[in-house]
Write a structure and sequence with these properties.
Shape: globular
Order of helices and strands: EHEEHHEHHHEHEHEHEHEHEHHEEEE
Helix content: 25-40%
Oligomer: single chain
Structural class: alpha/beta
């Protein structure tokens, strides 16, 4: 029999709040975290805005000297992890360290560190490049640094699957516990890629919204007038435990993770399959793994990026899998408020999905003013509402055709 796995701790750093209570409050209130970029000169860029983390002080979580040796994405991961571990009430010591693991991914890693040091190389020569540049920029370092900081000696890895990263990390961690290789896993994603190079690349790929006159309205998933996604940054971390372990220590159980599905589009490096085939198969796999039927699902936290083809293809995949039940499902996109956090998206959206189940409140899809005829589901437009959510899916689909879906459920003792 498969081990049951539950979620006992949550932590976030996001454009609408650097802790779970603030993030959840603003998500339910429909507040946008998108604003004009003020970190670098955006005069020559088609897109001049992003969803940025504000008022983040790494020294709340990390000593000043150590913080200087960490890229921003690793700082975010440590902050969200410390929140999640405190929320779960986990204490790591020599007696349990080998049974506690870390699985935190990043789609891009320490791009800010890479750019800063490359500029130093060009302007000041090789001797002025930081000796820490490689361990600061590599994408596995959030997971590595968290493990070192906490003394967690169990399985340690990092997913790097673009926008599916956070969900793959949580799903893989779920399976590690389920098969008995760990009792506790700290999992999620972190990203800090709002830098000039990334903005230029996404802009030139025509992937970003250019609604510079109203940035807070730029991320508008499923709306007819959407014109691209909005870059975001942050981190989302959950603490997963085997049910037996959680019960034995009297932990508060927030939700249960019941299924995980993944697939590859095998179609195009950036575009999703035109019929949403990979998304359909990943969702179907998550339901099979969970042992639940489509009609058992009440809510989907959509990938919902606000791109022209992505939103349509996700809608097609949902309708294909859920049939008539698709019209009764609630579907919403957190990205309408926080932008697209790339490798951190799945981690933050998993936290939001847990809160949705726990609180019985569906976060809205804001800026949905003119429905797209091809996007004809219930996207919880503009205003949150109460709902009884037994099971929910959280979808993440990334460049390269990577698809990941986790199924979460309300915990019951049976």
């Amino acid at each position: 029999m498969k081990r049951r796995v539950v979620i006992t701790g949550l932590g976030v750093v996001t454009p609408i709040g650097n802790d779970v209570p603030t993030f959840w409050h603003n998500l339910v209130e429909g507040r946008s975290g998108v604003s004009m970029i003020d970190r670098f000169d955006v005069t020559d860029y088609p897109t001049k805005f992003a969803a940025m983390v504000r008022d983040f002080d790494p020294e709340q979580y990390i000593e000043k000297k150590e913080a200087r040796r960490l890229d921003r994405f690793t700082q975010f991961a440590i902050a969200a992890t410390k929140q999640a571990v405190a929320d779960a009430g986990i204490e790591i010591h020599e007696g349990n360290a080998e049974r506690i693991g870390v699985y935190i991914g990043s789609g891009i890693g320490g791009i800010q560190t890479l750019l800063e040091n490359y500029r130093t190389l060009l302007e000041r020569g090789p001797r002025r490049v930081s000796p820490f540049v490689v361990p600061m920029m590599i994408a596995n370092m959030a997971s590595g640094q968290v493990s070192i900081l906490l003394g967690a000696k169990g399985p340690n890895s990092a997913a790097v699957t673009a926008c599916a990263t956070g969900t793959h990390a949580i799903g893989d961690a779920f399976k590690i516990i389920q098969r008995g290789d760990a009792d506790v896993m700290i999992a999620g994603g972190s990203e800090a890629a709002i830098v000039d190079l990334a903005l230029a690349g996404f802009s030139n790929a025509k992937a970003l919204s250019t609604r510079n006159d109203a940035p807070e309205k730029a991320s508008r998933p499923f709306d007819r007038d959407r014109d691209g996604f909005v870059m975001g940054e942050g981190a989302g971390i959950v603490v997963l435990e085997s049910l037996d372990h959680a019960l034995a220590r009297g932990a508060r159980i927030r939700a249960e993770i019941v299924g995980y599905g993944m697939s590859g589009d095998a179609y195009h490096v950036t575009a999703p399959h035109p019929e949403g085939d990979g998304a359909y198969r990943a969702m179907a796999a998550a339901l099979r793994d969970a042992g639940i039927q489509p009609e058992d699902v009440d809510y989907i936290n959509a990938h919902g990026t606000s791109t022209d083809v992505g939103d349509v293809h996700e809608t097609l995949a949902i309708k294909r899998l859920f049939g008539d039940h698709a019209k009764r499902l609630a579907v919403s996109s957190n990205k309408s408020m926080i932008g697209h956090l790339l490798g951190a998206a799945g981690g933050v959206e998993a936290v939001a999905t847990v809160k949705t189940i726990e609180e019985g409140i569906l976060p809205p899809t804001i800026n949905l003013e003119t429905p797209d005829p091809e996007c004809d589901l219930d996207y919880v437009p503009n205003v949150a509402r109460r709902a009884d959510v037994r099971y929910a899916l959280s979808n993440s689909f990334g460049f390269g055709g990577h698809n990941a879906v986790i199924a979460l459920g309300r915990y019951t003792a049976e």
